[in-house]
Write a structure and sequence with these properties.
The complex is a heterodimer of chains A (320) and B (286). Chain A is built from 16 helices and 2 strands. By secondary structure, chain A is mainly α. Chain A has one domain: ABC transporter involved in vitamin B12 uptake, BtuC (Orthogonal Bundle), CATH 1.10.3470. A two-stranded antiparallel ribbon of chain A has the order 1-2. In chain A, helix 4 packs parallel to helix 6. Chain A is globular and about 65 Å long. The relative contact order of chain A is 0.17. By secondary structure, chain B is mostly helical. Chain B has one domain: Orthogonal Bundle (ABC transporter involved in vitamin B12 uptake, BtuC). Chain B is built from 11 helices and 2 strands; from the N terminus they run ααααββααααααα. Chain B has a two-stranded antiparallel ribbon. Chain B is globular, with a radius of gyration of 18 Å. Classes of the chains: A mainly alpha (320), B mainly alpha (286). The interface between A and B is large, with 40 and 39 residues.
């Protein structure tokens, strides 16, 4: 798919999500908020996992830290939007510092290290009871104006974050940075040899992958009004985000958006109909994805499929 | 004396951890696959043992060989039919696939067994060694765990299959040229990994409650032990397990048991950065 087609599709999708309060039920609006939120997270992961090809599973750590940083700033009396900005910067700084350490690892070791980070941060947050409320979690003041107005505000907020993440993706995709990251993904040693500053590029990608997670986390905390360590730092989220990205097509501009939309809608259907088996179905989606859709939904050639279906139907007609 | 008791507790715990991690380490080392299924396989072994004991009165020690065989077959088939298809792809793919399989297994276990903790109580008492008390069930568990780990070490060093596994781990292309069927060796290795997980499940069922809530914890412990000890070698898992056991025991004593795991994970992160090859050796070939 050409770049401009991807941009147009994204614009259409964004308008569709943003217009939900005008034509849909509250349930759909809530779903749109979730989709916008997860799209921002998936686009973020795409910087490190898609462009640079590093198997990062630390999304939940960034999201959770964003939740807590935002919540604590807000509880300290700061205005909501300032608290979100602080959470973003804090998570970005955390990721840059952490990246300088763990990005020296590669492959399996990096994967394990990034999971370890989620566990350590979760355990620290849940045992630092005096600051974070420990396992009891933290409460936040809810916005006034009734649930409908609040939902509209947060829909707008999440869509703005999603749009920012998408614009950042477009910029990276077209820039020297994106080119360098793709080189790293293909062969890091060779990239280093021809003059790509791999360490710097990787740290930038890792920080980018954390920034928006921080914003989303803080906004999520303000939206729900309550956070606790198990919800905020869930390993399941760390895995779901890469799966969504792979489902759409990692390393592309629109892939994360399509993957998140497809996955969230599927999940919604499964939650509604097979409550007991939703995890197993998520697992089955993963297995199907790995075996039958290795390049993601974006890589499928729909023309080929149409041609094949046409060729199936023809001989049948001839036989009849 | 109190310190000595903590040390002994740590060593007993460490023996169990070695057994928990050795299969995971072998799969990682030979197949280059991070097996996210490992924790669930342990719990599956535990459940089979529990139901054999609870419904038919079969003693866990008698169930051990049967559970081990069953888990071996399960692992062999899983590898042959599924994981072999993507085994040469990047970590993200293999790890995501095993995680997907883990979600399926986990879900079915929660639905059929429910998450209620169950436990086999053998009531073996404790022995007293000059003021140091050691519960007999844990001691038995440790002896079994170390015995199994030792057996695996012998198999890897002495048997044809073991040598073939080590050859594939060193250089799978060269091993294929020497006439080793690499696909089969992968399946056997994964089978052994599952077998050790199942056996660990049997042993743990005698000591700890069996519940699906613990799958993540066990998997996390396997990560930590592997990184501490070094990858893919039996001695590495042994050293890593015992080191983690002792550290957790003392950390639990000093900061309270809820922080023992944090200390283990922190140690893992530090070691990953400082010495990713683990404490034992550089390559860890048998």
């Amino acid at each position: 798919m050409a770049r401009w087609q991807q941009y147009v599709l994204f614009a259409v999708w964004l308008i569709l999500l943003a217009s939900t309060p005008l034509w849909a039920t509250n349930y759909i609006v809530r779903l749109a908020i979730t989709i916008a939120m997860f799209t921002a997270l998936t686009l973020s992961w795409n910087f490190i996992g898609g462009f640079a090809g590093y198997p990062s599973f630390s999304t939940a750590a960034f999201f959770g830290l964003g939740c807590y940083a935002g919540a604590l700033a807000q509880r300290a009396g700061m205005p909501m939007v300032l608290a979100w900005a602080i959470a973003t910067l804090f998570v970005g700084a955390f990721a840059a510092a952490l990246g300088a350490i763990i990005l020296r690892l590669r492959g399996h070791y990096f994967a394990i290290g990034s999971i370890g980070v989620v566990e350590v941060v979760r355990l620290v947050v849940s045992s630092w009871g005096s600051l974070t409320g420990g396992g009891d979690g933290l409460n936040l003041p809810l916005l006034s104006g009734g649930p409908n107005a609040v939902a509209r505000i947060f829909l707008l907020v999440m869509i703005l974050i999603m749009l920012t993440a998408f614009l950042a993706t477009v910029l990276v995709d077209r820039s020297r940075l994106g080119f360098g990251l793709r080189c790293i993904q293909q062969n890091e040693d060779a990239a280093n040899m021809v003059g790509v500053n791999t360490t710097r590029y990787k740290i930038i990608a890792y920080t980018l992958s954390a920034l928006f997670c921080g914003t989303v986390g803080a906004a999520y905390a303000s939206w729900t009004g309550y956070i606790d360590p198990t919800e905020s730092f869930s390993i399941l989220m760390s895995i779901k985000i890469p799966v969504m990205c792979l489902l759409g097509g990692a390393g592309s501009v629109l892939g994360p958006v399509i993957g998140t939309a497809a996955f969230t809608l599927l999940e919604e259907v499964f939650w509604a109909n097979f409550l007991d088996y939703n995890r197993a179905i998520l697992g089955a989606v993963i297995v199907v994805l790995i075996f039958f859709l290795p390049g993601g939904l974006l890589a499928i050639s729909y023309r080929d499929i149409a041609a094949r279906m046409a060729s199936w139907s023809r001989p049948r007609k001839a036989a009849a | 004396m109190a310190h000595l008791q903590t040390l002994v507790n740590g060593i007993v715990l460490g023996g169990l951890y070695s057994c928990l991690a050795v299969g995971f380490s072998l799969v990682w080392g030979v197949l280059n696959v991070i097996n996210m299924l490992h924790g669930s396989l342990i719990i599956l072994g535990g459940y089979i043992t529990y139901f054999a004991w609870h419904s038919y009165g079969i003693h866990p020690l008698l169930a051990l060989p049967a559970v081990a065989l069953l888990m071996y077959l399960l692992g062999y088939v899983t590898q042959l039919l599924m994981i072999n298809r993507v085994v040469s792809q990047p970590v993200l793919t293999t790890m995501t696939l095993t995680f997907g399989l883990d979600l399926i297994l986990y879900n079915f276990m929660t639905v059929y067994y429910s998450a209620t903790p169950r436990r086999i109580t053998l009531d073996l008492g404790a022995i007293d060694l000059g003021g140091i008390a050691i519960p007999v069930d844990r001691l038995l568990g440790m002896a079994l765990a170390l015995g199994l780990t030792g057996m695996l070490y012998l198999v890897m060093r002495r048997s044809r299959i073991g040598r073939a596994i080590v050859a594939v781990r060193m250089d799978s292309a060269a091993a294929a040229l020497m006439g080793i069927k690499v696909d089969r060796i992968y399946a056997i290795t994964f089978g052994i990994g599952a077998l050790m997980a199942g056996a660990t499940g049997v042993i743990f069922a005698m000591v700890y409650p069996v519940t699906t809530n613990l799958t993540g914890t066990y998997l996390g412990k396997a990560f930590v032990v592997c990184v501490i000890g070094g990858l893919g070698s039996v001695p590495g898992a042994l050293v890593g397990g015992i080191v983690l056991g002792i550290i957790e025991s003392f950390a639990g004593q000093a900061f309270g048991p809820q922080h023992a795991l944090t200390v283990g994970f922190l140690l893992m992160l530090v070691l990953l950065v400082v010495k990713p090859t683990g404490l034992v050796g550089i390559k860890g070939y048998e």
